[in-house]
Amino acid sequence: MGFGLWSGPTHYLFIVPALAIYAAFVLYPLVQTLGISFTDWDGLSSTRDGVGVENYRKALTDGRLRSALWNNLTWVVGSWLPQAFGLGLAALLSANWIAGRTAFRTIFFLPATLSLVVVGVMWNAIYNPLWGGLNTALEAVGLDSLTRAWLGDQTWALPSVINAANWTYFGFAMVIFLAGLQSIDQSLYEAAALDGAGSWRQFLHITVPGLRNQINLLLVISFINTLRQFDLVFIMTGGGPGNASELIGIYIYDLIQLRRQVGYGSAVAVLLTISVLITSVIFLKVREEN
Amino acid sequence: MPAKRTLGYLALGATSAVALIPTLWILVISLRSTRDVADDPIGLPVPPTLANYTEAWNTARFGDYLLNSFLIAVGVVVLVVITGLLAAFGMTTLRPPGSGALLAVFLIGMTLPIWALINPLFRLVRDAGLLDTRSGVILVEAAIGLPLAIFLFRSFLRDIPTDLVEAAVIDGATPLRVLVHVTAPLALPVVYTVIVFQFMFSWNEFVIPLFLLQSDEARTLPLGLSFFQGRYGSDQSLVSAGAIMASAPIVFVYLLFQRHFVSGLTAGAVKG
């Protein structure tokens, strides 16, 4: 393009303020983290020794990192549940006989507006073993045998936290799907109805393929966001009991803040960053092909 | 088919209950004394008491937290909207040599986990004397929010017809005048989206304040609430009152500006 009347270096002045902030508080720290990841720095000493790729080699055989990664991946799979639920809700809400669509949408999206710290405090109360809402409700309907210390239980701690996260997520997924549904050609449904296809077949053969892009988007968002999860686990279990609900973010926090293994913690952070970057690139490629 | 409709409304009603009950329960608890709650966790607040709110307000600095959260979020929004719009205009409309590469460098920032930055950021902010200050948090959150804002602005500016800009140029307008009088007014919808997204990001952000704000009076609402839970965790009524105070402002704004809110938060989805 180019506007003949305008030219010259003054155009860079438009970019400079944003670039200055971004370079100082994102690019520079990023480069530093990369540098530190090749050292044994403890975060305090004035000296640090280069250790080459030792931290990265250590990460490959670190059982605690592997267990955190496994928990992250479990969370990824767990986040498919509210996505499927959100898809169903969106399809239901766009049926033409529904009244009160806006009210339902407002209610379902409400949890997504809350800070995760608030959500954590809330669900801590629900899971409380002594007087929590969940155990109280189970006892009220005679299911005493199912009550337990949800967040203190080796098996149930992680699923319980994932469930709290899912509570904030289904309305969000629903809104994304609702936007996608608006772009599906209504005449497809009319034609299918004429051919005698019921709502379930219409859903499977028109709605789901028509929402391919939204499904793709949500799968990637949830994957990336799940890899970066921290707040909820920090508030609800701290990664425990033991390391039962530990995530990569919690592990990095532990390494750089509590254990003073800043060199190794930085290497784990770099590996996390690379995983997220690779996923994003694959996502963009897939989207371009569609 | 009435049966289908009944089932449909049943499903929507049950989902509404799932979405609302946790929040309503916490609200009810916050209006009862902790002893009442321990005796009967799902009882009603008769008569309701505001004692938990006054105590939470007085023992914790919820007034300070609220002010800090608000000023930081506003600071981030102002900084991101102004510098982001300038930069997007520069890289999309003016396009000096190297704009494509610069844009790519900005967009990489959308995917970076905070853990790749936080330790050096802490030292950077400390050495600049900005630890425990709102300015330190504003600068860091703005830097982290800028990539998404630039991405959204650019997607919009790209689609503005070039003849509009060219006409203004022929009339002798400077680039800054074109931005202020032609581009920015057209971009208002996306500006709203960016405002909502950045405000919510900052309002709910936890890790950055956790590292950069250490004294009690400097904390934001989520950070203050997390420390409050740590200290008074056994007093659920008090903690619930804190949680309600921390979320009431945002829920209120959400109910007022629902449409902008939803588009702002879902636009944030591409942040990934």
Describe the overall structure.
- In chain A, 70% of the residues lie in helices and 0% in strands.
- Chain A has 290 residues and is an all-alpha fold.
- Chain A has a single domain (14-289), classed as MetI-like (MetI-like fold).
- The longest helix of chain A is centred in the last third of the chain and has 28 residues, at 262-289.
- Chain A is globular and about 75 Å long.
- Chain A starts with 11 loop residues before the first helix and ends with a helix.
- The radius of gyration of chain B is 23 Å and the shape is globular.
- The longest helix of chain B is centred in the first third of the chain and has 33 residues, at 62-94.
- Chain B has a domain at 62-212 and 263-271: MetI-like (MetI-like fold, Orthogonal Bundle).
- Chain B is mainly α.
- The model of chain B has no long low-confidence stretch (mean pLDDT 89).
- In chain B, helix 10 (188-204) packs across helix 14.
What percent of residues of chain B adopt helix (DSSP H or I)?
over 70%
Overall CATH class of chain A: Mainly Alpha
Distance between the termini of chain B: 41 Å
At the first level of CATH, what is the class of the domain at 62-212 and 263-271 in chain B? Answer: Mainly Alpha
Helix content of chain A: 55-70%
CATH fold group of the domain at 62-212 and 263-271 in chain B: MetI-like fold
What is the overall shape of chain A? globular
End-to-end gap of chain A: 28 Å
Mean pLDDT metric of chain A: 90
> Which residue ranges of chain B are poorly predicted, with pLDDT under 50 across at least 5 consecutive positions?
none
Protein structure class of chain B:
mainly alpha
Summed up, the helix count of chain A is: 14
CATH superfamily of the domain at 62-212 and 263-271 in chain B: MetI-like
- Gyration radius of chain A, rounded: 24 Å
What structural class do the secondary elements of chain A suggest? Answer: mainly alpha
| SSE run of chain B | HHHHHHHHHHHHHH
| Proper CATH architecture of the domain at 62-212 and 263-271 in chain B | Orthogonal Bundle
Into which percentage range does the β-strand content of chain B fall? under 5%
> For the CA atoms, what is the radius of gyration of chain B?
23 Å
